Amino acid sequence: MAISLVIDGETINVISAYAPHMGRSEVEKRCFWDSLDELVRECPSDERLFLGGDLNGHIGAAADGYAGVHGGFGFGVRNDEGRSILEFAAAHDLAVANSFFKKRDVHLITFQSGGHNTQIDYLLVRRRDLRTCRDCRVFPGGACSSQHKLLALDTRFERRQPRSVATRVPRILWKNLKGEAAESFRVSVSEGLSTRSEDLSARDAEQTWVTLASIIKDAAKDSLGVTSGTARTQPISRESWWFSEAVQSKVAAKLSRFRELLLCREGHQTDLNAAPIMSLVGQNGNHIKGVFSKLV
Fold this sequence. Notes:
It comes from Artemisia annua (Sweet wormwood). This is Craniofacial development protein 2. InterPro entries: Endo/exonu/phosph_ase_sf, Swc5/CFDP1/2. By secondary structure, the protein is an alpha+beta fold. The protein has three domains: 2-155, Endonuclease/exonuclease/phosphatase (Deoxyribonuclease I, Chain A), CATH 3.60.10.10; 174-239, no CATH class; 243-296. 36% of the residues lie in helices and 19% in strands. The strands form three sheets. A five-stranded mixed sheet has the order 1-2-3-7-4, covered by helices on one side. The protein is elongated.
């Protein structure tokens, strides 16, 4: 039996299984595992899965070749039916949650009958979801029947954040503003100005500016082209083509003179050649300081 639940937007598939007990024919057992295999495959791999029930097999106390599927904290001695459970789990990348938490025998035994204590009830989860399992244990006092004990799994569900969709951010290739492209750009801007002269003569300065900017951008896109891709895939320095060696040398020189100005203000230098420095820095020294801090 299988049901699907939705918890905080996450789909959870729960399967309850009851395997044929020892003494039944191999054909019947194989039919059961084939049907369970088909049912598990119907559950999308990106959804949580909990498979529990009476699987009528002993997986044993130790992992013994089934590391990652068996946690090493089982009970009893493994038999052929228990080996089928572990092989099924390995085939579907599942793990037996019972065996991943160290417990006393009383919290591992799931079945008691006629003085015999065994472990035949199991809870299986996807291996990647083991990290969300906090505990798995048997409650001796909570009997599901006269023989089976209550087996509980404590797990947590994390609310998934919706994935942000990367939007396209086309950018004008201003680096192409040279040669024939520059002439084509000039002609396109002139044509746009003549075509929309009435809009530019409007009294509203804001509207006039928006119209002028639109004309220039449209002409640039047609003449120079735009980038493709998303903001995530485009390189950070995609618009740094103008930062040539000549520009870098001028910036370095200006930064050096600005540092000299700061030293003079702090009283560390008495010889102040004010005119050249002020011509480089300008009247708004604080603004230039912010600009240079960003450049550095």
